[in-house]
Design goal:
Length: 251
């Protein structure tokens, strides 16, 4: 059974059909990229996975259970984490504190935040936070406030905040947008490494170098419809994809 099963999803905004009969299966342990031109419906689809939007019709099953109608925090607690296009970190807190919060929130629910400073001093929680910061290459900066980080490092911190929750499914919305080539390369390496943990990933990305170096499978959206799906080699060779996307502005 696929970890994420999207069946016949439709979504319209005031008469504009943003998603039209979308089907998508994401297999456990894979990196699945969703690509397509601007306005194709990628963010709308991702928002249907995290409870920010509900499909008008169709189903979204995660681990066999429906996500439709669940609140974002319920979907998060079920094991789905998301890295946003614009990093969402707690600017006034240290990196270590930023990574500690999601651990406690995931484990103990929202009440954990009240007791966060006291619990944050616990050794097991601190050790886990340190371990994850090491993984993303930010351990040396752990005492720094997050607001002072570069955009690329904020994204790495946000990734750490997701990884610490030990999600089954990680959704990455343009993880390298706005990054320099060097930072993009670093992020590709990092995402490859965290693949070794068997976290299933869905990635929306315009940068084809990122897509082709990470994805096992690729779904191509155009005007709200999946026009092609396959492995990177077949997607590269697909004439419809070249016309709709690869030959366009993001080639
Ligand atoms: N909240 C909304 N209200 C009205 N229209 C919307 C809304 N969100 C998205 N749309 C429209 O739905 C269509 C799909 O948009 P969406 O943002 O999902 O595309 P995208 O593939 O993510 O594009 P991009 O690559 O530019 O981020 C677009 O025509 C967009 O204008």
């Amino acid at each position: 059974m696929s970890l994420l099963q999207v069946q016949m999803v439709n979504k319209s905004f005031a008469g504009l059909r943003a998603l039209s009969d979308v089907n998508l299966n994401v297999e456990e342990g894979t990196v699945h990229a969703i690509i397509g031109p601007n306005g194709a419906g990628k963010s709308t689809l991702l928002n249907c996975f995290v409870g920010r939007l509900a499909p008008d019709t169709g189903s979204v099953l995660f681990d066999g259970k429906s996500l439709v109608g669940l609140a974002p925090h319920e979907i998060n607690q079920a094991g789905v984490a998301r890295v946003f296009q614009t990093p969402e970190v707690f600017s006034d807190l240290t990196l270590e504190e930023n990574v500690t919060i999601p651990t406690l929130a995931r484990r103990d629910g929202p009440f954990a935040l009240n007791a966060w400073r006291r619990l944050g001093s616990r050794r097991d929680v601190r050790e886990k936070a340190m371990h994850i910061l090491e993984d993303v290459g930010l351990a040396d900066e752990r005492g720094r406030t997050a607001g002072t980080l570069s955009r690329g490092d904020k994204r790495r911190l946000e990734l750490a905040m997701c990884l610490v929750q030990e999600p089954k499914l990680l959704l990455l919305d343009e993880p390298t947008a706005g990054m320099s080539r060097a930072d993009t390369e670093k992020t590709i390496e990092l995402l490859k490494r965290i693949g070794e943990r068997r976290i299933t990933k869905v990635i929306i990305e315009h940068d084809m170098q990122v897509v082709f170096s990470l994805a096992h499978r690729i779904s191509v959206l155009a005007q709200g419809t999946v026009i092609a799906e396959g492995d990177p080699a077949s997607i590269k060779a697909d004439a419809r994809v070249q016309e709709a996307y690869l030959g366009g502005t993001h080639a």
